[in-house]
Amino acid sequence: MTSSISRLPSNTLRHQDAATEKPLAAANKPVIKMAGQPPTPPAPKLIIGQHQRTLPSSSNPNPIPLLSFFTALITSKLSNPPLPSSVDPELVLAGNFAPVDETPPTDCSVVHGQLPSSLDGVYIRNGPNPHLRPRGLAHHLFDGDGMLHSIRLSRGRATFCSRYVQSYKLKLERENGCAMIPSVFSGFYCLADVGRLVVALARVVTGRINLAQGFGLANTSVALFCNTLFAMIETDRPYAIRLTENGDIETTGRFDFGGEAPINMTAHPKVDSETGEVFSFQFFPFFPYLTFFRFDSNGSKRQKVPIFSMKKASYIHDFALTKRYAIFPESQLEVSAMNLMALKGMPMKFRPTAQPRIGIIPRNAESDSEMRWFTVPGFNAFHIINAWEEEDEDSIVLVVPRALSLENFLGRIEKVHFSLQKLRINMKSGAISSTLLSERSLELGSINAAYLGKKNRYLFMAVAEAVPKMSGVVKIDLESGREVASRSYGPGCFGGEALFVARDGAGDEDDGFVVSYVHNEMANESQFVVMDAKSPALEVVAAVRLPGRVPYGFHGLFVGEKQLETVEPWPTGLSST
After folding, report:
1. Count of Cβ atoms closer than 10 Å to residue 491 Cβ
2. Which strand (E) or helix (H) includes residue 198?
3. Which one of 231, 379, 467, 518 is most buried, counting C-beta atoms within 10 A?
4. Where are the alpha helices (DSSP H) in 221-378?
5. What predicted TM-score, i.e. pTM, was given to this entire model?
6. How far apart are CA 106 and CA 97, in angstroms?
7. Domain residue limits, the chain
8. Cα separation of 392 and 175, whole Å?
9. pLDDT of 300-347, one tens digit each?
10. Topology (CATH) of 2-10+95-564
11. Secondary structure class of 143 (helix, strand, coil)
């Protein structure tokens, strides 16, 4: 059952691509030049169709003479080899992956249908949006400063806003007018890349960079815990954010759980809806690679469990939580600092001989000795949509998009097929079985949040074109094990994560809406689309024309109006860094 929404209207206001657009702001700092130093190159142009946009250069001279000398030497003496297409900024930052400017709160028009009264609240989605244009530097899609795109819905009206997360890295680079903390994730490809890291380390030594204040991009997800909204990334601590009454977004600070949090944590923490406890983990490139921890509802640490039985830096992005267990999926991707030092690109490598495992540990465990590992050949998963314990308490069920052809994940993600499967693990016998739920490539999905960690029936999954660029939505019935509804966004139209929002007072699990930002690449226009989750064709009940283009991004969250009234800008009684 497949339907298609009509092409997005072509008269939406163009944003970020018009000739009258202002360039991204860069600090106008005085520059000290060394004798013989080459002149600062003009800021490069980002070409989008017939329009061009000037972005600040990421390689302005450094105001400290010695560091300026080394920066100039690196730029002028060490030539960069051709970059792989996956990290070539001219290719990566093209089309609707190109960065946009901030948009202040702006009223929007409903161009189709009517916004449901039970949908009053805020939808807010995170994603990468580099504020500096990489000049001759590698840039992976997953890099880029975090930008939050929110739409506030109230009594049939909509207000849209886009704001950068005010991370330490962003503020530091704006103050200095140049890139200060190099992107390690995009990789090292020549000696110049190593040289830039040396310069950054020199800035740390001289006190120009204080890593204790942060180093991440805050570009992956939005989470609500300790009664506060956070922008998240797995390589740093979370940043608390505040939504104002007029629809604006403010960053209130970097949160460290009162000094008890590790230096980084997953972008996908889990909250027990009954106790308010927060469960999370730290994945780290050095041993111990995995540390499981939890906090109470006030943000005070309860327990930290280093997982010493994990002997390799097998990449773990997400985990699952059931009534009694936490579940961690190892993959065949391994973090490798040697890849960087050997100038082989990104700090990850695919290990075809590695045997993926699923680790299951009691969620109230006190030591690694309680962790059990189950080997599942070829099982690579980055997100777990849901997991629960069966009534006999002998089996655990996981619903997971399994990544096939994983060797393409970092370079040619469009070649990775995400096979949605239901995996059953017998905790007594160790037997594992799996059921294929769809032939399509499905990722970036959601469930009714009230069923997190409990047996549920329905999933809403985005159809993968090239994650995070998604061509439609599919509804899966876990009881029948098949698709029961689907919707294509139409030719040239792509969305992102399919987020389910339950209707107020709903009795049925699937009574609600599926929402996403959808971009029309032919008209270069974006909409906020609301679909009826119970409809056999996921009918569009409302579409809001947005004042600007919304780049493809990662994960989002909906906060209802009643809950929004109780959200605090900062967890009570806890400090920031």
Report:
1. 11
2. helix 191-205
3. 231
4. 337-341
5. 0.87
6. 22
7. 2-10+95-564
8. 59
9. 877 899 999 999 999 999 999 999 999 999 999 999 988 888 888 899
10. Neuraminidase (2.120.10)
11. coil
